[in-house]
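Contributing new records

If you add data, match the layout below exactly. Sequence lines come first and carry their own label; structure lines follow with theirs. Keep one chain per record. Anything else will be rejected by the validation script.
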Amino acid sequence: MLRSLLAAFLVAIVSFRASAAEPKVDFARDVLPILSDNGFQCHGPDEKARKADLRLDSEDALQSGSIVPGSSAKSELIRRLKPDDAADLMPPAKSNKKLTAQQIVTLTKWVDQGAAWGVHWSFAPVKRPAVPPGGVANPIDAFVADRLIREKRTFSAEADSARLLRRVTLDLTGLPPTPAEVEAFLKDRSPGAYEKVVDRLLASPRFGERMAWDWLDAARYADSNGYQGDGERTMWPWRDWVVKAFNDNLPYDQFTIQQLAGDLLPNATREQILATGFNRNHMINGEGGRIAEENRIEYVFDQTEAVGTIWLGLTLTCSRCHDHKFDPLTRKDYYRLFAFFNQTPVNGGGGSGQTAPTIDFGSPEHEAKLKAAQKAFDEAVKAIAPIETKLREAGTIEKDGKTETTLPVVIESALRKGFGGRVDANNDELAKFYEKKEPEYVRKLAELRKLKQARDAASGAIPRVMVMQDMPKPRDTFILTRGAYDKHEDKVEPAIPAVFKGPPGRSRLDLAKWIVAPENPLTARVTVNRFWQMFFGAGLVKTTEDFGIQGERPSHPELLEWLAAEFVQSKWDVKSLVRLIVTSRTYRQSSRVTPELRDRDPANRLLARGPRYRLPSWMIRDQALAASGLLTPTFGGPSVNVYQPSGVWEEATFGFKRYQQDKGEALYRRSLYVFWRRIVGPTIFFDSANRQTCTVKTVVTNTPLHALGTLNDVTYVEAARVLAQKAMLDGGKSDDERLGFAFRRMLGRAPVETEVKILASSLEKQRKLFAEDPAAAAKLLKVGESKRDEKLDPNEHAAFTAVCTLILNLDETLTKQ
């Protein structure tokens, strides 16, 4: 008996130890992704798509019959994963989904361990984790090192000084360091030399320009409306507000509130109202036959979904037509958010890029020109009105005490409306009808139409930024059947999605304040992730646009949580966050990769080396202009038309829009200020957002067309020509000195001996080619509008230009490393 009791006791101890040693299955990390990927399509939040009345996204529903917590053997869900009858298999074979053996083990363990429920990680409150021990100065490095140790890896060595300076200068200003800045940094051996550079760059006005680019992509900023008409708009003062906000280090919560609801702030300033231009960056459809209310609804859809992507990291668009199939977002949630933006007086009619409400930013010159044009127009209207009255009277007769006109109905109607009430078609009909009968009237009518065009052009030239303003009487909001503008269902009131259980609120200002409230679990996480992406090429959460259940889990969850908490506790200090990232050892590592590390971690998700990827095309252009000395340093102002192949606009607009290239310094403005036609963006930029919808992550591709652009586009050839001239005039007497000069201006470092030999060999080859074909040299030196020094030998200048083109196209030049 005693022996049996002892044996039973030992078995119990072994079982207890086994269960205690078995790791706990985490619902959010281990279970929810399996259920979401394989079951939510048919058994998830979308009630209308749900089959067999089975829900896998609800604890109560799941435990009401599908599982028995603590007993996988009694749970129908587990039985269905490996059933005796194939007809009972879940997911069914026709779904083309199949669980792995490990996933089945995970679900089985989860049920046996009690089936503890939880929420998706990004919907849980942000909690500041403890920094891993180790005496590391920068908390970022402590978290990254902790992961590397678990993976049996270490940090790479720090990048050499010249490459590190180029990396951080491009990252924080979008421009390369100057030779003087490189020299000063290489000479500074003080312990805080690098940190001093970072502080200098953060204080540079170029910082705001660099940061603004990514925000303009997200905010879908452009200089035209889109759609077939693609009329121009003047939103550039809002663009300049963004640059200033970053330079002034406007706290991110205020940056958010002012853009979403600056007009609703108490005693709102002109700048705060201007900030709301963010909401009006959507496309505007002025196509004939389009229904105004349909347009208006589309505009509000865009405003709602931009907010969902930028601040919440949620794919809201899915819920226009149905409950979200994966995330806890219903159609009602969507239209409650929609209701916040559904209160402006915009009616969707017309196609003007200056649709009220607007703010004027006209100069005194603008105002004077408009006043003169309006006066000339008014005088011409006053002069033609009596003539049109006589024409109308001449076309009437009295009969039986009644006036019945003898004019065609369309002509009488056009005359009765007066010039101010007619459309162009009416004036065309009048001109055709009176062409032979009243030639003097037709001439005056033509002059008046020209004066109207001049008046409208003067008015349109005044920058008017579309901003937000709510109507005095709120507009009702309804759930729309499949998003159709005229298919109303239940009425809804403004509210945040129910899953977040936030405070009630009815205005955009209430929404904006909740978005940056500490209890909102998403904004801080989503925002610090995008800043991380800006400097490392990929976010800690790779799916920058999707923090929902179908999004990727963070590579370093604790680091993301700590950064989010720190961002909020720093009072949303953007420059402090950026400084923390770029001063970390993680950021400062060399980007060189060993074969072993490439095989183990090709995407660098462990962060065991520095970032390395191709620079964005706008930065490549700005780099070329800056290194050559062509860059125009002017800040802000109207967008400019730089070099572009002929016929591009004309082809895209059936000839209605003609490209007029600017001249002089405008050609060399920063890429941020290049005019962006929405239906056909600037041809010099590749892999860039189309600015038609909100974009928070651009895809990097690699095609021969990119190289054809950087080798042959006027901008790059001219930059090479000007850089070559500078090298010949200022770089020294010898070939090696001149080549080294050009190399340093582009790459921020001196070439090594093998590089000098390759460049020198290339120079000799080009000399021979141009000596044999001086006409080719002359043609090359005519590329671009900047003047060349005619004292330089043309063949020699052409040879150096060809080599400088090579330098502009080196892998190291085009790559962040």
